[in-house]
Specification:
elongated; mainly alpha; 274 residues; 9 helices
Length: 274
Amino acid sequence: METATGRTNMETSPESPRGRVPPELPYSLRNHKLSIAIAWTILTINSCILPLVLFYALWFGTSLSRNIVVGINTAVFGVIALVSYSVRMWHLLKTDPHHRPLGSGRGSLDFFQINFTIGFIIVTIELVLGTKPKPPLVRLSAMPPTSLIFLVGGQLALFAALSGLGFRTPFRISSLPRGVAMRPGIYTIIEDVIAVDTGTGRSYREALEARYQASPLFRQMLHQLNLFWSISALAVGAVVTAVVFIPSVPETVAYGVGGCNDSILGEVGTNEGR
């Protein structure tokens, strides 16, 4: 099997000695259960509970126009997302290469940040189109979390198909240079999120590469997780979209359904990964 640099790793060949312990990763989910629980609690409160509390409090408890209610909700939590985006961007663009993908130069972004940018653009378009008319298109304004789920789920499904069919990377994907064997998309998500957002940096990217090369069971697990996440994301996205746009569902209910599914899916997926 080729490494991310295109070299062959003899440890993963059929002739490799069995029973060898694969390289350890410098960040283990099992050793950070409390911090993960705290992070998901904060994420759920920030991305699900608070937006809905603010929306319903303003919608039913004030005389503000519907456009102002949706606009306030969008602005407050859009700022939070923008801060998160900016912090990640700053880490990747610093002179210190600690957070950047392996083999990349200054100014290079990881694949997660590129997707973050694409998602940010999609969400911005939806919110502008949803809040501009009078009255606002509340159902469309409820769609950003679901659109992000479709974005991630669609990419994971595409990566699963391409890696299963033996395709090679058409361009650099984080630490994977152009022309090497495709890997499941969940590999890149794990690499980028943990390397940048936990601060483990290039040491984690290197360790993940070594682990992937050395352990057939690890590769199998990632393929299974990739399949689980892609199917779950697309299924949840389809169901939520249908519910949001069913005319008989009140638009205030549709807003609540559309606003929380990303946090719930993320929590389920994290538990599956453990």
